[in-house]
Structure formats: C-alpha cells, structure tokens
Amino acid sequence: MTSQKQNVQTDGSIPATRDKNSVKFRGGLKFISSLLLPFALGIFTVGVTFQQQSAVKQQPAGPRKTSGAAATLAQVEILNIFRQLDAHGNIRAIRFLYEAKQRTDTPENRSLDLSTAELSDIDFREASIDKRILNDLLLTDVFLSNATFIGIKMAHVNFALAQLNTANFSSAGFNNTSFASTPLSNTIFADATFKNVNFSSKNIRGVNFTRSTLVHVDFSFSMLYNVDFSSASLTNVNFSHAQLINAKFPSATLKGADFSNAQLTNLNFTSTNLILSDFFHANVSNTNFRQSSCVASKFNYASLSYCNFWYSNLKYAVFHEAYLNQANFSRANLYKSDFTSTNIMESELKDALSTEDAVISNGTIVHDENLINEGQTDYSISHINGWTLSNGNVTPVISNKSGSNCQVTLQSLYWSYCVPTCQFIR
Ligand SMILES: *[C@@H]1O[C@H](CO)[C@@H](O)[C@H](O)[C@H]1NC(C)=O
Ligand SMILES: *[C@@H]1O[C@H](CO)[C@@H](O)[C@H](O)[C@H]1NC(C)=O
Ligand SMILES: *[C@@H]1O[C@H](CO)[C@@H](O)[C@H](O)[C@H]1NC(C)=O
Ligand SMILES: *[C@@H]1O[C@H](CO)[C@@H](O)[C@H](O)[C@H]1NC(C)=O
Ligand SMILES: *[C@@H]1O[C@H](CO)[C@@H](O)[C@H](O)[C@H]1NC(C)=O
Ligand SMILES: *[C@@H]1O[C@H](CO)[C@@H](O)[C@H](O)[C@H]1NC(C)=O
Ligand SMILES: *[C@@H]1O[C@H](CO)[C@@H](O)[C@H](O)[C@H]1NC(C)=O
Ligand SMILES: *[C@@H]1O[C@H](CO)[C@@H](O)[C@H](O)[C@H]1NC(C)=O
Ligand SMILES: *[C@@H]1O[C@H](CO)[C@@H](O)[C@H](O)[C@H]1NC(C)=O
Ligand SMILES: *[C@@H]1O[C@H](CO)[C@@H](O)[C@H](O)[C@H]1NC(C)=O
Ligand SMILES: *[C@@H]1O[C@H](CO)[C@@H](O)[C@H](O)[C@H]1NC(C)=O
Ligand SMILES: *[C@@H]1O[C@H](CO)[C@@H](O)[C@H](O)[C@H]1NC(C)=O
C-alpha cells in the first residue's frame, strides 16, 4: 500500500522540491515504458500461455492445473507493471491482458487475475470490450479507489475481499458476481441490475442502490449502514442475520425478502411494498412502515418496538408471539391478520381501519362495525367517524350469503376495506 501511494504521487503530482532533471528523467522513463509496454506484455503473455498449455498437455487426465510457478510469476509481473504506470497506462495494460485472455484461453478459464493489485482512478469502460462488457475477471483482494464501471455488464467477476472506495457502478449489470467480504464505502449502484450476487460483507456504508433491480442477492450476515434502496426492486433478496441501520427503502418493491433474525434499526419502509416478507425473529426498532404494503408478511417472534404501521396494508400478516412495544397500527388494514400470543391489547388496535376477521392475542376472531347503515343510499359517507371517501370507488354488491344484505367495498390503489356484515370480495 505504501509503494502504491508513492507511485500515485510520482505519477500524478510530483512535489515541487524535486529538481527538474529528475522530473525529465522520470518523464523519459515513462515514455519509454509506455512504448515498450505492449511488447513486454506480448512476450510475457505468449510465455505464460505457452507454459500453461504445456502444463495442460503434460497432465491430460488429471484436473486442469496451471503451472504454479508461471502463475505466480505472471501475477508478480502484472503487479509490477501496474506499479510503474499511471492510471492511463494501467487501463491499457488491463485491456491488453484482458483481450489476450479472451482470445487465447479456453472459455472455462478466461478469468483475468488482477487480485491484490492496487489501482486508482481506473475507468473500466476503457478497459472493457466495447466499453460495455467485462466478464471473467478476478478482482479478489484488489484495492480500487475512484473506479468507474458505469453501464458495464459483468458476469463471473469476483470482487471478494476487495476494497472499494468511491466506485461508480451506475447502470451496471451483474451476473454471478461476488462482493463477499468486500468492504464498500460510498459506492454507487444506482439503476444497476443484479442477478445471483453475493454481498455478504461486514462493512457496507453509504452505498446507493436507488432504482436498482436485485434478483437472488445475498446480504445475509452483512452489516449495512446508511444504505439507500429507494425505488429499488428486490426479488428473493436475503437479509437474514444482517444488521441494517438507517437504511432507506421508500417506494421500493420487495418480493419474498428474508429478514429473519435480522437487526433493523431506524429503517424507512415508507410506501414500501413488502409483500410476503419474512421478519421471523427479527429485532426491528424505530422503523417506519407508514403506508407500506405488508400483505401476507410474517412477523413471527419478531420484536417490533416503536414501529409505525400508520396506513399500512397488513392483510393476512402474521404476528405470532411478536413483541409489539409502542407499535402504531393507526389506520392500518388488519384484515385477517393474526396477532395470536402477542402482547398487544385489542384496544390498541381500535384505531385500525379494519380488523375484520383478525385474530387477537387470545385467539378470538374480531369483526369491524358496519361502515354504512342498512338502507343508506349515499355510500360516500360513513356513519363511523374517520371514514370519508376521498377518492376510490364504492361498489355495492349483492351478498350471496343473505339476499337482503348488501355489501359495500371501498377500493383504491392499495386498500380494500369492507362493510363487515356482508361478504367480502378481494
Ligand atoms: C484457470 O487458471 C487459473 C490460473 O490462471 C488456475 O488457478 C485454475 O485452476 C484454472 N481453472 C481451470 C478450470 O482450468
Ligand atoms: C476519478 O477518476 C477519473 C477517471 O476515471 C478522473 O477523471 C477523476 O479526476 C478522478 N477523481 C478524483 C477525485 O481523483
Ligand atoms: C456516477 O455515474 C453517474 C452516471 O454517469 C453520474 O450521473 C453520477 O453523477 C456519478 N456519481 C458520482 C458521485 O460520480
Ligand atoms: C444475466 O445472464 C442472463 C443469461 O445469460 C442474461 O439474460 C441477463 O441479461 C444477464 N443479466 C445481467 C444483469 O447481466
Ligand atoms: C450462475 O451461477 C449459477 C450457479 O452458481 C449457475 O447455475 C448459472 O448458470 C450461472 N449463470 C450464468 C449466466 O452463468
Ligand atoms: C456468500 O458468501 C459467503 C461468504 O463467502 C458464503 O458464506 C455464502 O454461502 C455465500 N452465499 C451464497 C448464496 O452463495
Ligand atoms: C442516491 O442517489 C440518488 C440519485 O441517483 C440521490 O437522489 C440520493 O439522494 C442518493 N442517496 C443518498 C443517501 O445519498
Ligand atoms: C437466507 O440465508 C440464510 C443464511 O445463509 C439461509 O439459512 C436461508 O435459508 C436463506 N433464505 C432464503 C429464503 O433462501
Ligand atoms: C422516509 O422517506 C420518505 C420518502 O423519502 C420521507 O418523506 C420521510 O420523511 C422519511 N421518513 C423518515 C422517518 O425519515
Ligand atoms: C433489539 O435491538 C435493540 C437496539 O436496537 C437492543 O437494545 C435490544 O436489546 C435488542 N433486543 C433483542 C431481543 O435482541
Ligand atoms: C401513529 O402515527 C401517526 C402518523 O405518524 C400519528 O399521527 C399518530 O398520532 C400515531 N398514533 C399514536 C397512538 O402514537
Ligand atoms: C379475548 O379477548 C377479548 C377482548 O379482550 C374478550 O372479549 C374475549 O372474551 C376473550 N376471549 C377469550 C376466549 O378469552
């Protein structure tokens, strides 16, 4: 790391105290090395490829194994080259090595190994094919600062144990990529797309996933501070055993998220769609679920302290044995929700918009009052305080349970509230 810092300094801003001859000499060296670079890399690559091929030929039956010495030599040589060049030279070197690998190696083993390199200010668009594709890259344990990956599609890239500082991955695409044990700080993944990605890391700070799309992403056992998932779409994302502090999810859509055993503090789930999420045994505190949709989500054995479910849609949500300390269910839709064996009193649910067919702590099923009096013709006014029809439709339907009673359902984008004495259509 020390040598890297020195190099960055000599390549970038040379201290004014150095004499001019030294500057000229270094400039000359840099020029010569940039001329010789492709040549040197060419010989080096041919050499390594030859050694690899002969190593493979010598052991046709056994597992494919490159000569350890050649690989080590290659790695040392690559790291040496990186140390001697500035950012532009490094970009050219990476591109050269990458293309050579893509051309000469078998499809199963095209991975270019840049592990343990220390690289600053690299724009990987310049190092990739067509500025868009970068597959099969081993970046384990690399130190990358101010790296740019904007709009690049990546598959089989391994960032495990890498250190990334202020990297920009806006609109990038990731397939089968690992960020396992990778500390991330100030990393931008806005509008990025992820599939089969592993983010299991103890140190993720200030990372921005705004408007990104994540499918089969693993955050289990990770620690996330100040992470922004606003308007993101998360499908089968695993936060099990993770610790999240100050994470933002406003207007995000999560399908089948696993928050089991997670520690969630100060989260913003305002207007978040949390359908079928699992919060089993999670410790959730000071979290805002206002206007969220948690239809059929499970909160079994969860601890929910100071959580606000104001206007949230909790149809079919299950809270078995949950600990609900100062939770706010005011104006929530608790239709068919299940509070069996919780510490919540029926009176604490009285401000809910609906508790129709909900199961309260002692296992009793409760019902709402009728919203509209029998024979009432103006459906826009309810006789129960707090119910006014501001927008949405009131639909009178003839009940098939009893010919005389009518059913009225109020429907808007997220809600569907019903007149209790009748049958419900959802
Ligand atoms: C691919 O090459 C690397 C070294 O570059 C080697 O360690 C690995 O075993 C090779 N894998 C296969 C499947 O040949
Ligand atoms: C980051 O790297 C880019 C090149 O990719 C460069 O133009 C920019 O000046 C660098 N920013 C900082 C703060 O060093
Ligand atoms: C990251 O890249 C995106 C897309 O080019 C750009 O809009 C954004 O400003 C960049 N962010 C930073 C911090 O450089
Ligand atoms: C992942 O790979 C699949 C199949 O090769 C492809 O259809 C998809 O676009 C890729 N996704 C990303 C994010 O690169
Ligand atoms: C990604 O990896 C999984 C197994 O880890 C594999 O089944 C799948 O085919 C891979 N996808 C691509 C696009 O290579
Ligand atoms: C993600 O990486 C961690 C650490 O290497 C590993 O334990 C975990 O199994 C990986 N997750 C997946 C889904 O492969
Ligand atoms: C994340 O990036 C978006 C723009 O892409 C920005 O509006 C938002 O403020 C950023 N979030 C944080 C926490 O900085
Ligand atoms: C999430 O990850 C945990 C720990 O790795 C695992 O036990 C669990 O089955 C995963 N959840 C899902 C839904 O795959
Ligand atoms: C949650 O996010 C929403 C939308 O960004 C914002 O209006 C609200 O103030 C936030 N709530 C808290 C408690 O930070
Ligand atoms: C839940 O987290 C809070 C801090 O956020 C902590 O004080 C409390 O002990 C935790 N409860 C359990 C049961 O782990
Ligand atoms: C519940 O939250 C709403 C909205 O934040 C607030 O207006 C109301 O006073 C809260 N109710 C209680 C009982 O704290
Ligand atoms: C359950 O609790 C409710 C309200 O607290 C009460 O009216 C009802 O009788 C209880 N049922 C049983 C079976 O204890």
TrEMBL record:
Record carries keyword Membrane: yes
Signal peptide segment: none
Protein name: Pentapeptide repeat-containing protein
PANTHER family noted in UniProt: BTB_POZ DOMAIN-CONTAINING PROTEIN KCTD9
Sequence intervals crossing the membrane: 28-50
Species whose genome carries this gene: Rotaria socialis
Keyword Transmembrane among UniProt keywords: yes
Entry keywords, A to Z: Membrane, Transmembrane, Transmembrane helix
